[in-house]
Write a structure and sequence with these properties.
By secondary structure, the protein is α+β, with helices and mostly antiparallel strands. It is built from twelve helices and nine strands. Helix 3 runs parallel beside helix 9 and helix 8 packs across helix 9. Bound molecules: flavin-adenine dinucleotide.
Length: 310
């Protein structure tokens, strides 16, 4: 109880002096990093993502050899030659023998817009600790998409865009800015009236940046990356998945190669699709409309075939 009382006192003092500056954050030890409205700061080792975000590696446990070491525990033989290790890792990946990949862990620190965090947090197999807007005053950092990203909605794919820019791009860029400026001004007003921070924050938009520490084992990280590097994932979270990939491929190059070969760039075919493929390879006439009657499935089949051809 005493601890909490002291902590509260410390926060009150620090918040008071920090309020004179424009935007500040306070960590659990009460350390304040003061940020002016437009100053974006990045910690050491950060890979920049989007307009104000980043990913950086905090810690990693294990590497390719930890995977083979655990896989061979049943024989008590440990690591063999590099070639044999590579063969084993590829075998494990090919046959979904996943538990040896769980022997490797990564801890990241990332800053992302809240709408990205909402997609990211759905991956339940990680450990997360997020910045709290109950303890900290949120800095004036909002995601403002580049004009090239303001594209129209696809009619076929509900999850995505056409790649064609909308009309009046500048007007809508300005609209993003206006909304976040207004929301942030009102947020500041609430804080100035000494409103509870936990309530003052609720009208801030999803474009606001948040931060977290994220720890995950390699098996679940590969699952995350397979889903979030895919073109069906939203561009913004894909950018984070790409940054994480850069870190992972350096730490576990053999596993990364196996992941690319057997998961990321592999293609799955249903029984129906395989039957069609068989006929195509045997130069038989194939009526796709009747063989794959579902339109969406047919489109996806054609996409898979063209991705192999091109
Ligand atoms: C392109 C795309 C579009 C999406 N669209 C939507 C959407 O419209 N709406 C929406 O709500 N979500 C959506 N999602 C989120 C998606 O449904 C998953 O929640 C998310 O991808 C996490 O996947 P996961 O559960 O496999 O991962 P994790 O939570 O990391 O779990 C990994 C694996 O562990 C196992 N597991 C973990 N926890 C449990 C549990 N409690 N019980 C049983 N098994 C468990 C499962 O086998 C799971 O596959 C979308 C995801 C993607 C990639």
């Amino acid at each position: 109880m005493l601890f909490f009382t002291n902590l509260t006192k410390r926060y009150t003092l620090k918040v008071k002096s920090a309020r004179e500056n424009s935007s500040n954050s306070i960590d659990f030890k009460g350390n304040i990093s003061i940020m002016s409205d437009n100053e974006i700061t990045y910690p050491d080792g950060a890979i920049k993502v989007l307009d104000k975000g980043f990913v950086r590696l905090i810690d990693a446990m294990g590497d390719d050899s930890a995977i083979v070491q655990s896989a061979r525990v049943s024989y008590g033989k440990g690591t063999k030659t590099k070639n044999e290790d590579r063969g084993l890792i590829r075998y494990l990946m090919r046959h979904f023998h996943t538990s040896p990949f769980e022997m490797v862990e990564f801890k990241f620190h990332a800053r992302m817009p809240i709408f990205v965090a909402r997609q990211w947090i759905r991956h339940r197999t990680a450990n997360v600790n997020e910045l709290s807007a109950r303890y900290s005053e949120m800095p004036n950092w909002f995601y403002e998409p580049d004009a090239s990203l303001l594209t129209t909605q696809s009619a076929q794919n509900k999850q995505g865009g056409t790649g064609k820019q909308i009309k009046n791009v500048e007007e809508f860029k300005e609209s993003f800015k206006k909304v976040k400026d207004y929301a942030y001004k009102e947020y500041q007003k609430c804080l100035s009236a000494n409103m509870r921070r936990e309530l003052a924050r609720v009208n801030l938009p999803l474009s606001l940046y948040t931060e977290w520490y994220w720890k995950i084992d390699l098996n679940n990280l590969f699952h995350f990356l397979r889903l979030r590097l895919d073109s069906h994932s939203q561009y913004e979270i894909r950018e984070y998945a790409l940054a994480i990939s850069e870190i992972v491929k350096k730490k576990v190059p053999i596993s990364w190669e196996a992941f690319k070969d057997y998961q990321l760039y592999s293609r799955r075919f249903s029984k129906i699709e395989l039957d069609v493929l068989k006929d195509m390879l045997n130069n038989k006439e194939v009526d796709l409309d009747s063989r794959i009657p579902n339109k969406r499935e047919r489109i996806e089949f054609k996409e898979k075939i063209s991705s192999i051809k091109n």
